[in-house]
Design goal:
The chain has about 270 residues and is of the alpha+beta class. About 30% of the residues lie in helices and about 25% in strands. The strands form four sheets. It has a six-stranded mixed beta sheet. Strands 7-11-10 form a three-stranded antiparallel beta sheet, with no helix packed on it. About 20% of the residues are buried.
Length: about 270
Amino acid sequence: MEFLRARWKFKNCLADDAVGRSGSLALLWSDDVSLAIQSFSKNHIDAGVLNDDGLVSWRITGFYGDPITGQRYRSWDLLRTLVGQSSLPWLCMGDFNEIVSSSEKLGGAILPESQMSDFRDVLMDCGSFELPVIGCNFTWARGEGDDAVFERLDRCIVTDSWLSLFPQASEVHLVHSYSDHCPLLVRLLEASGDRINGIKPIRFEDIWLKYDGCREVICSGWNLESAYSLDEISNKLASSRDKLVVWSGAEVGNIKMAIFEKENELN
């Protein structure tokens, strides 16, 4: 980890060594960020972000859920303990090794509903919210071809008080080629013009479903190539997005402008 700290040019680092093939945690930060480590273990690192007066203004926790299903209740107990330690605004992010519903898994065996329900219960007990996601919904992949499995094991959860501090925050799932997990980026402020890498995200409009051809446009983009990796799924999503932009401009038009014109007529 010291090698990575120097390579990425961070001044500060707290890391826990991995045990076997299991994951490990590390927190790296630069000198222009003031942090106070609150607690840490093999499954979490909890820190307070200090304001200019040296007081903790909000908390950030890196979290790693137990990879063994039968031991995961210990991770959920840890989450409940962490959120109960302070009423400060809280951001918790990491690999939880669990999904909240079957919609967060593609391929492989179906998980027991009770297993997913336990995760939903702890998120509810923590009073947490999820940030808007930009990018592919899945964050982990294994296998190839018909044996490929995709899941959303990684996520960010926040309390309502944290969301009040950063109402424009979002969770970006980055494209990668070096891990079976994709990196997560928490963007605190909305980018200029609400753009990611120069591309404005498309907002799917419910009214599109009332138009003939919407389904065919999405399918034409989605069926462009196979979906054996997160990168390929990202490409399929981008293709569907681009085709929807062209189609909606030609068939539907500018919805906001149409609403504006109708409001003027009413006034």
